[in-house]
Amino acid sequence: MEEEYNLSKKETDKIIEKLKSPQIDEFAALQELVNILKPLDKSIVKKLIRTLITFYDIEGLDVGNVFMRNTSANVSDTKFSDNRDISVKEFMLEKEPQTDVEKIACLAYYLTHYKNQEEFKTLDLSGLNTEAAQIKFANPAVAVDHATRHAHFLVATQKGLKKISAIGELYVQALPNRDEAKEVVAKSKPKRKSKKNKNSNKVANVNE
Question: For domain 88-188, which CATH number applies: 1.20.120, 1.10.3470, 1.10.10, 1.20.1740?
Answer without folding.
Answer: 1.10.10
